[in-house]
């Protein structure tokens, strides 16, 4: 089983992120934070130029549900979505929540992880 879900889009990174913000919002997820990896690394003197952004996203109600049920889930929150350019194509992807929750070994979280994964995949697909 793949640990991640990824799609390719013809959009620029900025256009893909704008579209993601809208499709996530429609599913009650918000972008809490966005990191521009090359800008941050260049601040530290590292010459990394590959366009690469990390978005941390959260649905507060779902976060409350899983953290109340099992605080270990906090190791995987907020959810991450990456948007990067490679070989002239923009990629949008995420680690699968179902796989991450599987690491904890709490079978009572499987359905919730599946639902979050379906919503995030749908947001990614629609943003593409």
Uncertain regions spanning at least 5 consecutive residues: none
**Number of separate domains:** 1
The overall pLDDT average reads 96
What is the CA-CA span between the terminal residues? 23 Å
Topology of this structure?
Blueprint lengths: L3 E6 L3 H13 L4 E7 H7 L8 E7 L1 H10 L9 E8 L2 E7 L1 H8 L5 H18 L1
Antiparallel strand pairs: 1-5, 2-3, 3-4, 4-5
Structure description:
- The protein starts with a strand and ends with a helix.
- It has five helices and five strands.
- The relative contact order is 0.24.
- The mean pLDDT is 96.
- The chain is globular, with a radius of gyration of 15 Å.
- The protein has helices at 13-25, 37-43, 60-69, 97-104, 110-127; strands spanning 4-9, 30-36, 52-58, 79-86, 89-95.
- A five-stranded antiparallel beta sheet has the order 1-5-4-3-2.
- It has a single domain, classed as 2-Layer Sandwich (TATA-Binding Protein), CATH 3.30.310.70.
- The chain is an alpha+beta fold and 128 residues long.
- Helix 1 packs across helix 5 (110-127) and helix 4 (97-104) runs antiparallel to helix 5 (110-127).
């Amino acid at each position: 089983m793949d640990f991640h879900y990824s799609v390719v889009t013809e959009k620029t990174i900025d256009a893909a992120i704008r579209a993601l913000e809208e499709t996530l919002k429609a599913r009650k997820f918000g972008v809490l934070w966005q990191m521009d990896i090359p800008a941050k690394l260049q601040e530290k003197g590292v010459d990394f130029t590959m366009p690469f952004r990390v978005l941390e996203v959260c649905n507060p109600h779902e976060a409350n549900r899983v953290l109340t049920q099992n605080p270990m889930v906090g190791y995987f929150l907020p959810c991450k979505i990456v948007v990067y350019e490679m070989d002239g194509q923009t990629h949008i992807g995420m680690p699968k929540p179902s796989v991450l929750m599987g690491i904890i070994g709490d079978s009572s979280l499987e359905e919730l992880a599946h639902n979050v994964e379906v919503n995030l995949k749908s947001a990614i697909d629609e943003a593409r």
